[in-house]
Structures are given as C-alpha cells and as structure tokens.
Amino acid sequence: MSSSKIKSKFLRPQVEDFERRRYRGLDQRIVNWKERRAVRHCLRRILDGCGPFENGGPVVLDAPCGYGRMFETAAAAAGPEGLLLCADLSEAMVVRTMERALSSGGDTARSAPDRGGPQTAGLVADITAGLPLKPGAADVVLSLRLFHHLHRAEDRASALAEFFRVARCGAVVSFYRENRLHALQRKLRARIKGTRYEVRMLAGRMFETEAEAAGFRIVAVMALFRGIHAQRYAVLEKR
Description:
The chain is 40% helix and 20% strand. By secondary structure, it is an alpha/beta fold. Strand 1, helix 4 and strand 2 (83-88) form a beta-alpha-beta unit. Mean pLDDT is 90; it is low at 1-8 and 106-114.
C-alpha cells in the first residue's frame, strides 16, 4: 500500500469510522484480545533484558500507532516512569491516539505516576522514509499490522532498518506468513464485501531473512492462531 493511499484514506471521518467498525464482530474481538496478550508477552520479553533505563522507565515506540488500539498495552509496558511515542503516517490517527491517552488518564505533557500512565508524545512520520528520532531513541519498537501492507521488499527493508536504528534493545514486529486457509478466507470476504484483497503474505522464512539482514537476531516468532491465521509476532533483538 503506497503512502499516498494511506494519507488519502485516513482522515478524521475515516479514522472514526474505522475505529467504530474494525473490531466489532465476535471473531475480531477474540483476535483483539488474543493479540493484546501476545503483544504484552513479546514486549516483556524484550524489556526484561533491556534495563537499566536512562530515566527510570523504558521508551516504547508504537509505529504505526493507528487509532491507539494498543495504547493501553504499550503504556503498561512503558510504565509510569517511561515514555510512549506514538507514530503514524496519518495525522488524524496520531490525534486520535493522543485523545485516548488523555481519556485513559495519561498525560501528554509530563509523566503522571500517580495515575499510572507514562509520558506520551505523538509523531507524524512515514516509517519507510525515516523516523524523526535519533539512533537508540527508543528502548523497544512495537510495529503491528504494517508489514502485510508493504508489498515491496525494499519498503520492508527500509522499515526494518529504521527500527534497528532507533531501537536500543529490540523490536516486536507483526507480519503475515503464507497461510492458504487464511488467504482463502480473506479472498472470500473481499468478494462478498466487494473490496480488494491487498495483504502480502510472506513465504517460508522470508521475514526472518529480511530482519536478520537489517541486523536483528530472531528471538522468537509467535503465531496468533496457529494453522488458521497468517499473523505472526517476531521478537527481535539487536545483535
């Protein structure tokens, strides 16, 4: 999916509509619950071996943050002494995430340990073109549901190179591994709804090879629903 398509799609009305519809069905609510559990586990696996932290808590970068679906999970990983950076290509998505930060009791200006929320900040940026962050600015990068929209190997390589550059310890990155059952299900759903089937599923160890080429070490790859769903979560450490 090109940057221009993403920019034109996710304006404020589209963000609100996407948030309202995306995880409404029972199957998607189950996926959302399962995914939060997987992300908590993967982030903890990186952060447990990452300290000590410069300011008492970790810096977590959520990129892309979308409308803030994983805000509470990422904020919990950062903790009251940490910093959560929320980046997305869509300004409307970043604004919505910052609204969730305020409504959940967080503070976008300074740490609020009495409320249990980290300091938060929003960034509008194209990940494949470069993030406006210094090397090692984040302790861990969380990137969900981006890579199956990156059809070109060079775009995935650019994103992984950026994650390697800005992460001090590692990254948690989701991708779609080739799965015939899930591919068939998506094609049927797209035909029924009259939408286009545009996700990119990677064959074999293609993602692992690309991540290692960027400099990461593969710690673990977890399946969302093994055998029936293409989604995988890779725990990547810097070598």
